[in-house]
Amino acid sequence: MHAKSPLEPREDPLEQFELWFAEASESAIRLPDAVALATVDSGGRAAVRMVLYKGISDGGLTFFTNYESRKGQHLQTTGYAAMVFYWEPLERQVRFEGPVSRLSAAQSDAYFATRSRASRVAARASIQSRPYRERTEILERYAEIDTRFKDTEIPRPDFWGGYKLVPERAEFWTGMPHRFHDRVEFRRSDGGWEWCRLQP
Fold first, then answer.
1. What range defines the domain where residue 50 resides?
2. Angstrom distance (rounded) from CA 39 to CA 76
3. Which of 2, 103, 119, 182 would be 107's cystine partner, CB 3.0–4.6 Å?
């Protein structure tokens, strides 16, 4: 169903995002928190993959991963990324661009503790983005770690934790008839935000 009218945005894009995210979460969309994360390496070559959005903290959108993964290496090198959420049943898309920094160890510890035991074991067992030949290699490592921590809590490994992207630019896209879509862009300016509409 097409939107009946163009977006009348809030003054802060994160407030607007939280409204839209709440509506997506209340809909039948299976993974409203799935977001495409784009990064670049030192040579300007881009890569994109899906991650899970984990909320807003200190003005930034958070996600968690292995620091030594390909995306972790890109973020360490450039410190910048872009995100895009797409909720097709609602005909809505949200884009964010901005600098990325690590969350504190305490924040990463707190989130890690909420993960299932199996997910915590997997986080320790995976040398993310590294090549291997046989799946038995990582299954054996998983089993070894599972046994090692059989009777104890599984601590967060030093190579795993959270990041936050603090937006400098955001865009809210609403599907409209005849591909004459509604686009509202926010840009950070002198500590606040300015917004305008973009032609479709």
1. 13-104+160-198
2. 10
3. 103
